[in-house]
Amino acid sequence: MFTGIVEELGEVTAIENLGDSSRLTLRGPLVTKDAAHGDSIAVNGVCLTVVTVLDGEFTADVMAETLRRSGLGALDVGSRVNLERPMALGGRLGGHLVQGHVDGTGTIAARTPGEHWELVRVTLPAPLARYVVDKGSITVDGVSLTVVEAGADWFTISLIPTTLDLTTLGFKQPGEPVNLEVDVLAKYVERLMTAGGEPAGAGDPR
Fold it and tell me: Could you give phi then psi for residue 168, rounded to 5 degrees?
């Protein structure tokens, strides 16, 4: 479980193509300082399992399903990425509950600079739009953000200087893809409202 508060701007240093999967090597001295084999690290909002750790770098295998659902397959050597370690129980929840399970990809549609911030418009697949609401939470490339306005197939986010300086959202341009994870609580509510039937344990007790 993550919070969407990016800890470090990392870099892809190697990519090994393995047919329907790939192995990424990423530099992130901060997130690897206490990482070990089997730990999780979110890369642009995608929860990946650490395979090896050495000298501030770690490797992670990316399966076909992850490549299909996210933008990790479009990364090149030298690409910058947002990195976050899992939240620690008992710590502060600075963003919102983020699973690192990407629901799909969107596209940066437009950027409108402000005096000290920037308004970014993102298009998204129609099936995801129903989970996005004004002033709700969404994760964009692993960054926990508040939705300013939500439309039929788009939403806007307002980026403060810290987000612009310390994450990939500071330099992604219109036309570039971003990974999206909608609020999991909205998906659970939808499932409960549409599943029908009796809840578990509600049958005849005899």
Answer: -65, -20
Q: Residue 138: what are its φ and ψ, rounded to 5°?
A: -150, 150
Compute the chain's Rg from CA coordinates: 18
The pLDDT tens digits for 13-72 are: 999 998 889 999 999 999 999 999 999 999 999 999 999 999 999 999 999 989 988 999
User: How many residues are present in the chain?
Assistant: 206
Tell me if 93 sits within 8 A of 3, measured CB to CB.
Answer: yes
Handedness of CA 37, 43, 81, 146 (dihedral sign): negative
- On the CB side of 28, how many CA atoms lie within 13 Å of its CA? 31
Nearest-CA neighbor of 119 among 163, 182, 84, 70? 163
pTM: 0.83
> What is the distance between the alpha carbons of residues 23 and 104, in angstroms, rounded to a whole number?
21
